[in-house]
Amino acid sequence: MKLEDVLKERIEELLLKEGISVNALATRMGVNCTTIKNILYGKSCNPTIRTIFLLSSAFELTLSKFFETEEFENPELEAGERKPRRDRKDGELPKE
Q: Contact 42/8 with Cβ under 8 angstroms?
């Protein structure tokens, strides 16, 4: 299973447990709901540690508790392929 899928499932699990919407979570985190939706819909496969920290804090969990699930401890968990970033102005790939 891919890391981004496990993260998505963990967020969905916590949303159900808390009985809150994506919009309510975004408000708790102090971010735009697009940030969360991008993770849930697979558009953001590489959220920042800040975003993960805000997620765990919004659910009143430490980072270690957020990741304390069987799925995250699975030795066969794999990171998905990194998608190339595009320059936000013109859609071109950044020059290396």
A: yes
Rounded Cα–Cα distance for residues 96 and 86 (Å)? 12
| Alpha carbon distance 80, 72 (integer Å) | 14
- Rounded to the nearest 5 degrees, what angle is found at the Cα of 32, between the Cα atoms of 2 and 95? 65
Confirm whether 77 is domain-assigned. Answer: no
Residue type, 43: K
Count of structural domains within the chain: 1
pLDDT tens profile 51-80 = 999 999 999 999 999 999 888 888 777 776
Q: Could you tell me if residue 89 is inside a domain? A: no
- Report if residue 93 sits inside a domain: no
